[in-house]
Design a protein that fits this description.
about 160 residues, alpha+beta, Ribosomal Protein S8, Chain: A, domain 1, 2 domains, four-stranded mixed sheet, two-stranded antiparallel ribbon, 6 strands, about 15% strand
């Protein structure tokens, strides 16, 4: 009790909690009737903390993302060495269309690294931009840089739908 003879909320909460932990009490009016301790929701309501009820524990299951399984050996290839930034698009698009109609799902495109180009590589960045547009348009599934044994940075794997 505080100095004014009344319980404050914190003391009332402690008393209620102590009573609920002690277990069921026998009521003096009826010896056969057993009082059950109040639930936490009742204790929160009595303490004036309405709206802050304890939330039920939710069992969470963390699922691992599915790993993409791609083929390991490409089925067709297109060599773009010697092509210009304006002449490669029809060749690449025709190659992709022909590969899809043939039932291929994994092909290789070799634009080259650009060692022999003046002022650095020009074709490979253009091919990468064009393939990114084809992914956005859902024409192809995905593309990646090839492994070193298949051309490394100078080649691209293309996964068809």
């Amino acid at each position: 009790m505080n100095t004014f003879g009344a319980y404050n909320r914190e003391e009332a909460w402690k008393d209620q909690f102590a009573k609920s932990v002690a277990g069921p009490e026998v009521d003096a009016t009826d010896e056969n009737e057993v009082k059950t301790p109040p639930s936490f929701a009742d204790l929160f309501a009595e303490s004036g903390m309405i709206g802050h009820e304890p939330k039920e524990e939710i069992e969470t299951v963390v699922k691992k993302p599915k790993r993409r399984v791609y083929p390991t050996k490409w089925e067709a290839q297109l060599d773009l060495h010697g092509e210009t930034t304006t002449s490669y698009k029809p060749l690449l698009l025709r190659f992709i269309c022909d590969s899809r109609t043939s039932g291929f799902t994994f092909v290789r495109v070799s634009p080259g690294v650009g060692k022999h180009s003046e002022n650095g590589p020009k074709l490979r960045p253009e091919v990468v931009k064009y393939l990114a547009k084809l992914v956005e348009n859902s024409t192809i599934k995905d593309f990646r840089t090839a492994k070193p044994r298949d051309g490394g940075y100078g080649a691209l794997y293309v996964y068809l739908r």
